[in-house]
Amino acid sequence: MVSGFHIPESAREALELKASLGEGARFLGGGSELNSQTSQEEGIEDLISLARVNSKSIEFRGEEIIIGAAATIQEILEAEELPEVLHRACLQVENRSIRNQATIGGHVAAAHPYASVLPLLIALDAKLDLLDADLAPISLGIPEYLDGAREGLITAVRIPSFPADGGAAVAQYRRSTIDLALLSVAVFVAKKDAAVSRSRIVIGGPGPLPQRLIRVEESLEGSTLPPREQIESMVREQVRAETDSRATAEFRKHMAGVLVAKALTEVAS
After folding, report:
1. Which region holds residue 205: left if phi is over 0, alpha if psi is between -120 and 50, else beta?
2. CB within 8 A of 40, min separation 6: which ones?
3. Whole-number pLDDT of residue 40
4. I need a surface site. Which of 34, 50, 74, 226 has the fewest CB within 10 A?
5. Class of domain 58-160 (CATH, top level)
6. Inter-CA distances, 241 with 2, 115, 212, 215, 262, Å
7. Contacts of 236 (CB under 8 A, 6+ apart)
8. So what's the architecture of 4-49 in CATH?
9. Nearest-angstrom CA–CA distance, 107 and 84
10. What is the pTM of this model?
11. Where are the domains of the chain?
12. 121 within 8 A of 108, measured Cβ to Cβ
């Protein structure tokens, strides 16, 4: 049960609070994730609001797009200067009420299987800016963050600018327009002439964390895109899926293949 709500004025104060309050403390961004968890997750005693700590800024700096961790999904969607594929990923988030509340920092930190934007950030090789407990800045890839202890405070997401020879696409499956996503797919493809020179293929939803399909990427490199049926088969062979109350592992594998083939075909066209 939550018994304390704290509104620090700085990153230093937020991190000090987190350290002093212990394992029962959670950072609070927009609250869309934590508000749904507090009635389910035991042991949350204190919430530390980041409303006065993190930036909402969205800017281009050199070869990067830098999005402050407090920027909401809706604000990213409405930033006209950002790539269209990022707008499309944001639009996949369930509804505008959630998009108005959810922050990009919280979206990454929560790392739910149904996260709609997270697979695209990984496919675009985005990096996280964090501050550790001593306020030392850290730059970390999202897979490394998710696979690690997830410590520190996310302050920004950095997305590399698209190379001239590259493109990206997203695809998603959900049972209804208001349902959480069952599967979210994002692909990035760079081509030389008509052949794939490099790619990143990421699927969210088959298991607890997004999966990158490296063997499929290696199979595509140096050749033109194979038929959709072949892509679907390669994806089904590599993706690791689980059965739960929402879908069987077999259905998730099938739909993963369909969605990846759809997204790759879109980029290649």
Report:
1. left
2. none
3. 53
4. 226
5. alpha beta
6. 34, 16, 13, 16, 19
7. 253, 254, 256, 257
8. 2-Layer Sandwich (3.30)
9. 19
10. 0.94
11. 4-49, 58-160, 166-268
12. yes
Query: Contact at 8 Å (CB) between 60 and 81?
Result: yes
32-66 per-position pLDDT tens digit: 877 654 445 667 899 999 999 999 999 999 989 99
Strand partners, 170: 186
The confidence score (pLDDT) of residue 35 equals: 65
Query: What would be the CATH architecture of the domain defined by 166-268?
Result: 2-Layer Sandwich (3.30)
Closest CA to 171 of 187, 185, 181, 189: 185
